[in-house]
Specification:
The chain is α/β, with parallel strands linked by helices and 556 residues long. It folds into 3 domains: 12-216, Substrate Binding Domain Of Dnak, Chain:A, Domain 2 (Up-down Bundle), CATH 1.20.1270.20; 223-354, Rossmann fold, CATH 3.40.50.2030; 369-546, Rossmann fold (3-Layer(aba) Sandwich). Helix content is 43%, strand content 11%. The chain contains 19 helices and 17 strands. The chain has helices spanning 27-49, 58-70, 79-98, 102-107, 119-126, 137-162, 168-180, 188-217, 242-252, 272-275, 291-298, 315-319, 346-354, 372-377, 379-388, 426-434, 474-487, 507-518, 536-546, and strands spanning 223-226, 234-238, 258-261, 280-283, 302-304, 321-324, 333-335, 365-368, 393-396, 413-414, 417-418, 439-443, 458-459, 462-463, 465-467, 498-503, 525-527. The longest helix has 30 residues, at 188-217. The radius of gyration is 23 Å and the shape is globular. Bound molecules: iron/sulfur cluster and FE4-S3 cluster (SF3). Residues 5-8, 10-11, 17, 21-23, 25, 73 line the site of iron/sulfur cluster (SF4).
Length: 556
């Protein structure tokens, strides 16, 4: 075994990928990712040991967030870029260490000083610093829980920084929490405290991104998003980075090319700033894991701004994929930012001009835009519906979608009830269909694709699926819960008529989970299966302290 990774929900056998990843990650790439994390821990150790003020090292802060983001599931499959990133990180680390006194340097851990020139040396080093280098299963479990939370946090901080919003204290926390992963003497109590602190900083990071998005693009508002296609050539944009989308819309204006969103980019349509582009045509396709089919029929170029990339099976599709930011795929053109974050998307635009328009997959529309500001403006009818009993319950079904099981909509009727396997994603479709008519789903993230085309109707003027946006907009759901608590005069967020049935797949969902726990939300159902990286003892601890469970909510 030359790799070990168990960071996502689809890890092999529910325990860990050891001989290549289920996601398509190679053993070499997994090793390079381990070394990149280790190098960033070394940077954290330097920052901590000599008490460097994070506001004084902006380049290091941003590069560490980008590095963490590159290791998120399905973000970057490019070994050459990972190697390049390690070299860049080592250089930044060595520059940081450069001005230190001999006595300080001698106190630094290996991660802050090791050298590896060649790829072989990197791989050799990586084989000693991966997940399994922490022997104690509970320490390993909490350490990884924190690390995965940091990856999600870094993703959100990275997006906010692209829009000019940064918070040195969040960077400071990321450095110190990374450094903590090198400390041998940490007790389980220390790690539990750090886990909770990670959740608190997760809330701050999501608030920062919310502020960045809403100050740049306005507040999301109720919007009908077209699912059909037009007759012009198109560019499909996937991932989560709204600043990339804005630049592409600016550069395609007046070219006769339409721009469509895919998967987690759908919520861009809810923002006023994007609506002014008449060539921003609609949403094409479905959740990330269906992209190979969606891309085949799209016909034009595809831009990945972040995860989730599925390794393309055909050369033809691969030749139409472009990446930017933290994302990457070998053989695909990567568009790097120039001065002040400006990107030149002309290679994508030129390709689009030569290719046919997208083939229609479906018609109709989706309704979304129920982020905090819009929902607060609907507070009266919502409160009235709760008071009269028209709305009995809200169920938060935010999070990630995933491949298991691949048949999206199923229907096996046995007697009166639909049968489904609770350990697969089919469960979420079945659950949404079975909800009583007076229940409303609150959602964010690509988990919504399991039920957002089921036409679940509305209760008066309130749709039964309220989509707040991307996974990072789960922050909106927390704000909505806190507002409801205030308006209903409750003292505990857990007294609200809300249950949490959250789907997870990758590490952004981990920071959302930790953020919810830090806000005091209890009894979250997490699925379709609990993370493999939670050891039995850590599961027990999370269950006893927060009521977190892998069990599904009671039969309806
Ligand atoms: Fe396996 Fe998930 Fe890691 Fe990929 S990200 S190697 S599927 S655990
Ligand atoms: Fe989805 Fe990848 Fe997580 Fe942003 S696009 S929620 S899985």
């Amino acid at each position: 075994m030359s790799m070990f990774c168990f960071q996502c929900q689809e890890t092999a056998r529910g325990s860990g990928c050891e001989y290549g990843g289920v996601c398509g990650k190679t053993e070499d790439l997994a090793q390079l990712m381990d070394l990149l994390i280790y190098t960033m821990r070394g940077i954290g150790a330097i920052v901590e040991t000599v008490d460097i003020e994070p506001s004084g090292i902006p380049e290091v802060n941003r590069e560490v967030c980008r590095g963490l983001f590159m290791t998120i599931t399905n973000a970057n499959f490019d070994e050459a870029r990972m190697e390049e990133e390690i070299r860049k990180m080592m250089l930044l680390r060595d520059q940081l260490r450069g001005g230190l006194k001999e006595s300080d340097v001698s106190e630094l851990p290996d991660a802050a000083v090791f050298q590896a020139e060649s790829l072989e040396e990197m791989q050799f080093k990586a084989s000693y610093v991966g997940v399994l280098s922490t022997r104690d299963v509970n320490v390993r479990s909490l350490r990884q829980l924190i690390t995965y939370g940091l990856k999600g946090m870094a993703a959100y901080v990275h997006h906010a920084a692209n829009l000019g919003k940064e918070d040195p204290e969040i960077y400071g926390f990321i450095h110190s929490a990374l450094a903590a992963g090198l400390k041998e003497e940490q007790t389980l109590d220390d790690l539990v405290t750090l886990t909770m602190k990670t959740g608190e900083y997760g809330v701050r990071a999501m608030a920062l991104l919310d502020e960045a998005n809403t100050s740049a693009f306005g507040h999301p508002e109720i919007t009908e998003v077209d699912l059909g296609v037009r007759n012009n050539p198109g560019i499909l944009v996937s991932g989560h980075d709204l600043s990339d989308l804005l630049q592409l819309l600016e550069q395609t204006e007046g070219t006769g090319i339409d721009v469509y969103t895919h998967s987690e980019m759908l919520p861009a349509h809810y923002y006023p700033a994007f609506k002014r582009y008449s060539h921003f045509a609609g949403n094409y396709g479905s959740a990330w894991w269906r992209q190979l089919t969606d891309f085949e029929y799209f016909n034009g170029p595809i831009l990945f701004t972040t995860n989730c990339i599925v390794p393309p099976e055909s050369e033809e599709v691969r030749s139409r994929i472009f990446t930017t930011g933290a994302s990457g795929y070998p053989g695909c053109v990567h568009i790097e930012a120039e001065e002040e974050g400006k990107k030149d998307f002309s290679p994508i635009i030129e390709m689009a001009k030569r290719l046919p328009p997208p083939t229609e997959l479906e018609t109709g529309h989706l309704v979304g835009g129920f982020a905090h500001d819009q929902v607060f403006r609907l507070a009266e009818p919502i409160l009235e519906a709760i008071r009269t009993g028209a709305v009995k319950k809200f169920v938060v079904m935010a999070g990630c979608d995933g491949r298991s099981k691949a048949s999206e909509y199923f229907s096996v009727n046995k007697g009166e009830k639909e049968e489904y396997d609770e350990s697969t994603r089919e469960y979420y479709t079945a659950y949404a269909k079975r909800l009583p008519q007076d229940w409303v789903i609150l959602t964010a993230g690509c988990a919504k694709y399991r039920y957002n085309k089921l036409n679940l109707g509305s209760i008066g003027s309130i749709p039964r699926v309220l989509d707040a946006g991307q996974c990072n907009d789960s922050y909106s759901l927390a704000l909505i819960a806190l507002k409801l608590k205030e308006l209903l005069g409750l003292s505990d967020i857990n007294d609200l008529p809300i249950i949490y049935n959250i789907a997870w797949y990758e590490q952004k969902a981990v920071i959302v989970l930790l953020a919810l726990l830090s806000l005091g939300v209890k009894n979250i159902h997490l699925g379709p299966t609990l993370p493999a990286f939670l050891s039995p003892d850590v599961r027990k601890l999370l269950n006893e302290t927060f009521g977190l469970t892998g069990e599904k909510p009671e039969e309806l």
